[in-house]
Amino acid sequence: MVNLVIKTDVEYDPVNHQKTDIYYDGDAKEARGAIIDIHGGGWFRGDKAKDADSSKRLAALGYLVVTPAYRITPQAIIRHLCWIWIDYLTG
């Protein structure tokens, strides 16, 4: 049985107040890897909550899963979002 840990609404971008959900097995000594689960919506709609089920399934398989909300276009530039996520994860 997996000890699924879910941390919701963790702020990763304090400038734009963007939040992420983090999923992992609390009993695992080490994750199999990390996955950034970017929700669908063509960069102009959608929400991180719609990917909660897939994020839980991936975490149950041993992955650390980060499912961020993000600013929608045209306010956001996608390559900037990716660098923000990488900076947050590598901290």
TrEMBL record:
BD-FAE-like domain span: 21-77
SUPFAM superfamilies assigned to the protein according to its UniProt record, in alphabetical order: alpha/beta-Hydrolases
Family annotation (InterPro entries): AB_hydrolase_fold, BD-FAE-like_dom
Gene3D superfamilies in UniProt: alpha/beta hydrolase (3.40.50.1820)
Residue ranges of the TM segments: none
Superkingdom field: Bacteria
Pfam families membership: BD-FAE
Protein name as it appears in the record: Esterase/lipase
